[in-house]
Design a protein that fits this description.
By secondary structure, this protein is an alpha/beta fold. It is built from 13 helices and 13 strands. 53% of the residues are buried.
Length: 367
């Protein structure tokens, strides 16, 4: 029996690599005669660079940057010489996982660190920059990213605005000249969502609460992003309010479109092509995937939903191991609640519990 183990990250618990290793250990313990291939995946969020690095043999380059609250940290970009591409994982700068729950500030968090990563990518002289967005702590519409690359955001009196989402409510004018290294460079925005920047399905309403925003904060962010979209259109001539995917990463998707001419595409497709997923699926008898929360959003372009779709098309059995799942989850979906009902305990001990859940599934699997 050939098993392809291809999870994404379990948010705030396990990286995709850690999840794949735990699942593989559990299956191997229960079924030592099975052949197991580990293939950690990403759809643009955390793990994006790691997945591309394994597939392409690209070279990582260390970059000094800052997290969403301005604290200095070290990250890297990935140079893929064969295709003239430099890949950036935005979450290495503005990632939600980089800030503890008590310290999160959805109104003040900034994407300036992402701009620092993009700037470093451009300095390498690539033909293409691919920015994986997802797993962010920010809701500033990508304004911080643009600020790091030279944009100025001013209020009605001509004063520079402070970083973050909330100050955008006072935005009156944007001064922007694209940096010289951007000339002739194709920018791709790899995302797992199609949400617009604003509105009931926009960045604030859908993703704000995940970043620690209260209901009042969500209203503040929504109003600020509405103002931001209007001024972007007036100053730059780019309409981003309703662009599918512009709401990704708190509007970073829209900012990359507006300031860098980015083209939004499926992050899953970027990774799937790089790792040769289609061929690996054909070789597998069973696919085991997983994520922290399997719900309606999983079927809207995220790794697990897309993998289930592709497995169905290839007539390959697909099993999902999740931290938790919506009651409406269909198909073979197992959750850690079967092993540990307490959610907090489950997150603290995710690796061991995922391993145990995988072993339970493998022992009982009808093959």
């Amino acid at each position: 029996m050939r098993v392809l183990v291809a999870p994404q990250e379990f948010k705030e618990s396990l990286t995709a690599e850690e999840a794949a290793a735990a699942i593989a250990r559990g299956i191997a313990a229960a079924r030592p005669d099975w052949t197991i291939e580990e293939l950690p995946l990403s759809d643009g969020g955390p793990g994006f660079l790691a997945a591309l690095a394994r597939a392409t043999g690209g070279q990582e380059r260390v970059v000094a940057t800052h997290n969403a609250l301005g604290r200095a940290r070290t990250a890297h970009v990935l140079d893929i010489a064969e295709t003239g591409t430099c890949a950036v994982e935005a979450a290495m700068a503005n990632g939600l996982a980089l800030i503890d729950r008590q310290g999160r500030d959805a109104l003040r968090a900034s994407t300036e660190g992402v701009g620092e990563l993009v700037g470093a990518a451009l300095q390498g002289g690539p033909r293409r920059v691919v920015v994986g967005v997802g797993g962010s702590a920010t809701s500033d519409g990508g304004s911080g990213m643009a600020r790091a690359l030279g944009a100025r955001f001013r209020d009605g009196a001509g004063r520079d605005l402070a970083p973050g989402a909330a100050p955008l409510a006072e935005l009156a004018r944007i001064d922007w000249s694209p940096p010289e290294p951007l000339a002739g460079v194709e920018v791709l925005v790899a995302t797992d969502v199609t949400n617009p920047l604003v509105g009931p399905q926009g960045a604030a309403a859908v993703f704000g609460p995940q970043k620690g925003a209260s209901p009042d904060d969500v209203e503040v962010i929504e109003a600020a992003l509405q103002r931001y979209a209007a001024v972007v259109e007036r100053s730059l001539g780019v309409a981003i309010a309703e662009v599918p995917g512009a709401g990704a990463a708190g509007g970073l998707g829209g900012g990359l479109v507006a300031f860098l001419g980015g083209r939004i595409m499926s992050g899953f497709d970027v990774v799937a092509e790089a790792v040769g997923l289609e061929e690996r699926l054909r070789r597998a008898d069973i696919v085991v995937t997983g994520e922290g929360s399997y719900d309606g959003q999983s079927e809207q372009g995220k790794t697990v939903g897309r993998l289930r779709q592709l497995s169905s098309e290839a007539d390959t059995r697909c099993v999902v191991l999740a931290g938790r799942a919506a009651a409406v989850a269909a198909g073979e979906v197992l959750t850690l609640a079967e092993v540990e009902p307490d959610t907090e305990a489950s997150m603290r001990n995710a690796a061991a519990l995922v391993e145990e859940l995988a072993a339970r599934w493998a022992r009982s699997a009808a093959v």
